[in-house]
Amino acid sequence: MPAGDSMPDTYIAIMLQSLKKKEQVLDEIIRLDDRQKDTLTDPECPFDGSRSDRCGICNIVPRTS
What we know:
Blueprint: H1 7-41, H2 50-60
Helix pairs in contact: 1-2
């Protein structure tokens, strides 16, 4: 622990860092969800993009732990 930091300050810093990471992950999930919705509602799209988007979300979720 750096000089001058108290235990509550360190805890708060760790919690803020964790919240920022989770916010980034949720932003990415929202982006992928929007892309998936666009793909699935596009009448010109010849394939179902849900699997590739779902796999993309699976790849980013473990970063929250």
